[in-house]
Task: structure prediction
Amino acid sequence: MAVKTAVKEKEKERRAIITVRNLSVEYRTHRGIVKAVRNVSFDVYEGEILFLVGESGSGKSTLGFALMNLVPSPGYIKEGEIIYHLDGQDIELRKLPLEEQRLFRWKQVAMVFQSALNALNPVLRIWDQLYDTIQAHDPNITREEAYKKIKYLLSMVRLDADRVLKSYPHELSGGMRQRVMIAMALLLDPKILILDEPTTALDILTQKNIIELLKKIKRELGLTMIFITHDLSLAAELADRVAVMYAGKILELSDVYTIFYNPKHPYTYALIKTIPKLTSIDEELYPIPGSPPDMINLPPGCKFHPRCPYAKEICIEKEPEFEQAGPNHYVACHRWRELKFER
Amino acid sequence: MAHVIELKNVSMAFAVGGGIFGAKKFAKAVDNVNIHIDERQTLALVGESGCGKTTTGKIVAGLLKPTEGEVLYHGKNIWKMHRKEFNEYRKAVQIIHQDPYASLNPMLTIYKSLSAPLFKHKIVSTKEEAIDHVSKLLEMVGLTPPEDFIFKYPHQLSGGQRQRVVIARAISLNPKIIVADEPVSMIDVSMRLQILHLMKDLQQKLGVGYLFITHDLATGRYFASDGYTAVMYLGSIVEFGPTNKVILDPQHPYTKALLSAIPEPDPEKTRKKKVMKLRSLDVPSLLNVPSGCKFHPRCPFFIEGKCDKTPPGRYYLEKDRWVACYLYGDGGASESR
Result:
């Protein structure tokens, strides 16, 4: 397998559209405080598809909610900055008045959730939901203008507007509902789309269809997308860059080819070597020992050390910094300089 | 010799809706399925959600009585057995469910959950014996040292550890066959392979056969690499054969379409894949199953007047390898329905 070290695209000037610095998010529970996101810093570049990949409890969904300032109670952003760089302005969403925050969501950054059935109002026809959404943000829009826009977006997600608009959510299949949700998210021309496991509940052929659709949206609208998933294969298929999360931290962040062919973090490598492959049948797989940590009772030092075959004294004593390991490659491991992983 | 478990022309129809005035409709979740499983063997039953694979698993485990066809245990119809024989069969065929959070009683300690069937089937009679036996089971599934786990409650364990307890319960009565219904799909990625390896080890040690039900073809391919794979679509098996042949050289258009659409954890490989174009993306409802071959409204190789008329029979490509599709012939009359 040819190893790609360099980024495939030309190293053009990358402009950050979101900067996240030292972000920590916690949940207060009866057992104690869950540190779901711990001191995370990264940039999201304009026009890229950034994947947040992790297991349950890694903090990936919480991070997605935090970007929208919508962390569900009893969670809260403990500290840190999330700054959007839009229309020549630096906007810190959390500092805006609530009404402006509401306008900012949908209009600048929209979110698509895993369960489209729960996200749509079951007693409203699709037309009413889409029209209400447009109207709420643009009270002056005429019915005709709204219809034109809605029809265009539905055709973009390959839905027959005349049939779908008259339907209630339960009359549509899971794939159709998910496509309605994507059209709805695009309704107000957001610049950023956050997708949290948007294909998990769908069958394989529909999932493929949604992936192709997202590629098309990126191509035609130049949207920035943040895609949250536990499924590394989806990242391989769609990502420009991948952030691998574990126990509330990003352990490794780089372009998709580097993550898969030249990872520097033992967890990233272990994860790739533990997934059954469909067609590479001779590839040997290795289980990862142990379980992910209890988020209330985190181990000291590097949170992966109890499961890491390369752990040394220092890994138990100190949590590693998230440092630059190459052009556009960041890793949080004490031993990344010495370790070499072959694929 | 008779197979340990054999399904013969098994169908399962569920009554849907009706209410006070409406007419009842029937959804055929499983339609004329023939499979068999033996000790030490692995059969992967793969398909998308709603294709009837879980229903098939429940029929194999005797949890559902099919509306048509026979379920044979060593050649005997389980639904015509005497209670004593039926109990023997029940012991011999165990099931592992998908959700390790829901399949253990949260009010019971691991000891209570695991010892109950041992007492019921008179394998142990005193508490000392039971503790001893349960400890051995916990060791077998890698929960060591057992005293760290035996008196815990399910919520004190991780998903992977719970699934190990469920596996311990499944092997506690020395079964011959285990129906494993998506045993790793609700477990974190980093712990899945541990569970798959554990199940494989137990197969080596105990000689159990597995019916491994999954929607994840890569996992099915890995687990049943030395066994067989059956691909299910809308209640029917459309392709059957040795696992690596089915996955690497699929023949049925549905299997081909499915495999062409599955992303792989390798950016170069997966971005080069060409997805097969279907005539329709919509999966038909089980209440309104297409005539003839059920895949015909979506199939790019659809032959009008043939595929939409009668369901295709099995066309044998070689021994133990068949496909139900008119592209390969009309199917042997004796083999077809």
